[in-house]
Design a protein that fits this description.
The chain is an alpha+beta fold and about 575 residues long. It contains 18 helices and 17 strands. Helix 1 crosses helix 3 and helix 1 packs across helix 15. The radius of gyration is 31 Å and the shape is globular.
Length: about 575
């Protein structure tokens, strides 16, 4: 029989080892919470520094309190001014998105690391990716408490802790996935980070998306297209191609207990082996295919290509796109790994599955490719007439698209109509293969949502200081990547809020109070402002809001908060903000 939960208040000692060799000793007053199943810290204070020789605790100097005196008071009156706009806004985002709570649950008793992780993530979002050496100055400007200031040693220590405790990272991923709806849409994609460092084991020469000829570290991300939030990531050596990265992604999804997700991927992850893995793992998928990689689909495409010219196949959602959907069956084979009741290890297992191939013709893409092809043909023809040597690729096009004859020393170059049509018949094609989405309109709409994960990587590079590793240790790099991941969760939450808001602002809803002309006019003003400002510029705008705390005299406590115009107050109201900025 388990012992009953008492829930008594207990006093514990905690030792923190710093990089300079000092050991700080803290006293924590904790109480066990049976609902969250973890200790809650009620009080925490610094006892002193541990003497390395005797082990005794040496008290530290008390903090210096800055105080001023009024002319008519004998008491010490503290007067403080601090910037609260952007910090209060980010504090609300952390609570409303659930990111802060998920971090504290994932880190268990280690609230100190969780709070530092939150502060670093908010700094990156607020400053649009400023480097961390500038963080202490920024915190002082925003009147962060002295015991919460994060120095260079502290943020390195945070990264090391996160890199060494994979349980923190995976627990956070699980917490972020708990709120997902069933049959969620999950995008998979990767990016590379290039580095000059020779000390990062995962940095290897491979595919470099930045094309700077440096070794890279690859990061693969799972992203919820419904919640518009990053869910999980893991990094790999830079020489691992996307096409073989899908196995770990499927295992990660299984660990996170995401119920029957629809996996959306680009053609970089497409291979027949990956499709077979999806089929045998009973996973729903939607992936882009190219004829170069999906040669087994070419016959189906050729049979239905002429149907794309019919106006009856024009999409309702986009008049510039025509599409057809084909349902077909395919045999998938896999070798049995283990002995089972029906098969022995090494036996070939075959299943027949129904798939849907959606073929689209994008008119604008077709016209652009035709213009480029025409220019390419003109250039090749000029080289043929001049008897210049062609590259192997250009020579292949020349053999297919031109008839070259030579008579009496003169060269004649005429287009080969059949060869040109054969090359151009696939211009503007987009192929989507799926075992789930039967409707061509909905399949295309889902695939287009993939742009969210592309935006995610752009933000990682530009607003989370993720363009370079900036560390020379594998553990520290993993920890730094995790905090960047958290910061992008902040950014994406508010980004989605504002994007959704812009679609409804200034619209008549039928509510007589909302539909007043003055209110609609004010909302249209907010919409115009949001359409012309980036998220970072919005943070900068609110960064001017300050709070002045006055103590003493006839008023024991007076707080002055910078006034705001109607538009700003209304913006905070419509995004659902609750905090100090609206209490003035």
């Amino acid at each position: 029989m388990a012992r009953p939960i008492v829930g008594d208040v207990r006093i514990k000692q905690e030792r923190r080892h710093l990089n300079n060799g000092r050991v700080y000793v803290y006293e924590r007053v904790v109480k066990y919470d049976p609902e969250t199943r973890r200790n809650i810290t009620l009080q925490r204070k610094l006892l002193g520094i541990e003497d390395p020789e005797t082990g005794k605790i040496i008290p530290t100097k008390p903090k210096r309190v800055i105080s001023t005196k009024t002319g008519n008071s004998e008491d010490n009156d503290t007067i403080q001014r601090k910037k609260i706009g952007v910090t209060s806004l980010l504090e609300w985002v952390g609570k409303a998105s659930g990111i802060d709570e998920d971090l504290k649950v994932a880190f268990g008793d280690d609230n100190d690391t969780a709070n530092k992780c939150i502060n670093i993530a908010r700094y990156w979002v607020a400053t649009n990716g400023e480097t961390l050496p500038n963080m202490r100055t920024w915190q002082i400007k925003h009147a962060i408490a002295e015991d919460e200031l994060i120095t260079e040693n502290l943020y390195k220590q945070v990264f090391d802790t996160l890199g060494q405790n994979e349980s923190y990272v995976q627990n956070y991923f699980k917490c972020r996935c708990n709120g997902l709806e069933k049959r969620s849409v999950i995008a998979i994609d990767s990016t590379t980070t290039s580095t000059y460092s020779q000390q990062l084991d995962a940095a290897r020469y491979g595919f470099n998306k930045q094309d700077d000829s440096l070794p890279t570290i690859k990061t693969l991300t799972l992203y919820s297209l419904d919640a518009h939030q990053p869910l999980a990531f893991y990094h790999q050596p830079g020489n691992i191609p996307d096409i073989i990265s899908i196995k770990n992604a499927l295992r990660e999804l299984s660990y996170l207990n995401i119920s029957k997700p629809l996996i959306v991927s680009d053609n970089g992850f497409y291979s027949l082996d990956n499709i077979t893995a999806f089929i045998f793992e009973r996973m729903r998928f939607l992936t882009r295919v190219t004829l170069r990689d999906g040669a087994w689909l070419k016959k189906i495409v050729d049979e239905h290509l002429n149907e794309l010219d019919l106006f009856s196949n024009q999409l309702d959602s986009d008049a510039n796109i025509q599409g057809v959907s084909i349902c077909f069956e395919h045999n998938f084979e896999r070798l049995c790994k283990y002995n089972t009741e029906g098969h022995k290890a090494g036996d070939k297992i075959t299943v027949i599955k129904k798939l849907h191939l959606h073929i689209y013709r994008l008119r604008e893409n077709k016209h652009q490719e035709e213009k480029l092809f025409a220019s390419q043909l003109a250039d090749i023809k000029a080289h043929l007439l001049a008897e210049d040597e062609l590259t192997p690729a250009a020579q292949k096009i020349a053999d297919e698209c031109f008839i070259v004859t030579k008579s009496r020393g003169k060269i004649s170059v005429t287009p080969n109509q059949d060869g040109c049509l054969k090359r151009s018949r696939y211009f503007g094609l987009l192929l989507l293969l799926t075992n789930d989405e039967k409707d061509k309109e909905s399949a295309l709409a889902i695939y287009r949502k993939r742009e969210h994960i592309e935006d995610h990587y752009e933000k990682l590079k530009n607003i989370a200081d993720g363009n370079k590793p900036r560390v020379c240790d594998d553990w520290r790099f993993k920890g730094r990547q995790f905090v960047q991941f958290v910061s992008l969760g902040y950014f994406d939450f508010l980004y989605k809020k504002i994007k959704t808001l812009k679609q409804t602002l200034g619209q008549v809803t039928g509510d007589p109070v909302h539909d007043l002309s003055d209110n609609l006019k004010l909302e249209k003003k907010i919409k115009s402002w949001l359409e012309n400002e980036s998220l970072h510029e919005i943070f900068e705008w609110f960064d001017c809001v300050e709070s002045v705390n006055l103590h003493g005299g006839k008023h024991p406590h007076v707080r002055l908060i910078t006034e705001q115009i109607k538009r700003d107050k209304k913006f905070l109201e419509v995004i659902g903000y609750s905090g100090i900025l609206t209490k003035n």
